[in-house]
Amino acid sequence: MRYRLLWLAGLLAGLSPVNAAAHEVQIAEDVGATLHIEPNDIAQAGAPTELWFALTQAGGTVIPLTACDCRLTLYDNQETAIAQPSLTAVSAEGFNAIPGATVTFPEVGSYELVLSGSPQAAAQFSPFELRFAVTVASRAASAPPAESAAAAPTTAAPNDAAATDPDRAAPPEATAIAPAAETPAPPSTSTLGWVAALVGGAIVVVGIGIAFIGGRRSPGGKQ
After folding, report:
1. Which of 43, 52, 184, 213 could anchor a disulfide with 90, C-beta 3.0 to 4.6 Å?
2. Do 151 and 144 contact (CB within 8 A), yes or no?
3. At the topology level of CATH, where does 2-139 sit?
4. How many whole angstroms separate alpha carbon 199 and alpha carbon 10?
């Protein structure tokens, strides 16, 4: 309890009233931190998100990243570790060289960031593990569309029904490829000969008829 009161007093002295009210404080033994997400403490899915931890000891002494063997792990809502972002030294809002990272939340949903660490070199503080709940309520406009969990349905081939259910197999004629339309064969030589003979005969008959009629109408012809 003493560590908590000392730590809160030191941390709140270094934060503005607005930030102190907006940020959740997590404390473990004599170490505490607040999580800040850029911008405006709003996390969005699908895009890199900058965040940092105001990490201090009880009384308000800042713990820089160089003094802490710190690790950051991202868990999904199934408590499965999905990423371990690298920590870098960040200076923001009056805190110098504190732990920061770039995190990409894959989808909208609930997550947990766990910052754990132990003292490095001459630093003196207790090993700690701080857990921060993060709710991602929207997807970044610049993020690519989320991939569909299920592949688009494909049209089954005609023979698929027979493979899965013999009673529904299509009859052979239903799947047979229709034969190509046949080009009519040219008339044979014998057919052409018969046609020519008929045409010639008709011409001869017409000629005889014309000659006969002309002979009857000629002046020397007999009626």
Report:
1. 52
2. no
3. Immunoglobulin-like (2.60.40)
4. 123
